[in-house]
What does this fold into?
Amino acid sequence: MPYHRMTEAEARAFITSDPPHTGKLATVRADGRPHVAPVWYVVDEDGSIVFTTGEDTIKGKNLSRTEYAAMSIDDERPPFSFVVLEGLVEISEDIDDLRRWATAIGGRYMGADVAEAFGNRNAVPGELLVRLRPHKVTSAKDLAD
It folds into this structure.
């Protein structure tokens, strides 16, 4: 079945679309087994993918140990499309940054009326701000056309 790769602009439009898609974050456990978890995210101006997670979660521990991840973002509706991002991650525990980005994430997925409450709830000790800096992007659109 033929498909079409997305241009860089198309891929960015896809991962920033409204309504937003949920990312599926892939990390590697200490014993080498894969781990995949859904995450809400926003895209920063520099193209990095920003999300939060608890430092004691499986993904939080994996990210802290390997400093590397992949994320798949897909549209499950025909004609089906996806973007997969791979790269290094940077982790911060800065509460002000956590609040800023968690508020943006909450607004994107739940609406402006609850964004601040979501940001405050997630800007706490033990929460990590993660920035995935993609160095490899794979994409396809209109897979069923």
The first strand starts at residue 23 and ends at 28.
